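pinging the channel bc i need a second pair of eyes. not urgent but kinda urgent?? the chain im working w is below, pasted from the shared doc
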Amino acid sequence: MGIDFFNRLEKILVYKEGVLRAVHKPLYLLYCIAAVQRDEPRLQEYRTIAPILEKALRLFGPRTDKVHPEYPFWRLQNDKLTEVVADGPLETRSGSNDPKKVYYYHKMHVVVFSKLTTNYLLAT
């Protein structure tokens, strides 16, 4: 699992626009690693994590008027590092596979890391 975990980290797709890179995924992954180290539950509500990530994005991300803490929660599933659990179906935004933002607050729970990844981090 160790090599697989590090390979997945190396292959994370990070959005780039010109010279700017989105730091959403790396910052959220740091939060996830810290959560595992603090022995927090794997399943957490988006509404509890979002303000923490929003603050980190404002501190460490590129200067912008809008901050989108919701992006890494859904998109890191594609990198096979996290999971999302929903209380029912999620309608997606037009032109995107991301769920509408309202679902993050009312129907979605975020699994900090997959069980396999959590077990690996706890064993190291």
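so The beta strands are 16-17, 20-21, 43-45, 83-86, 108-111. and The mean pLDDT is 82. — does that match what u expected or am i reading it wrong
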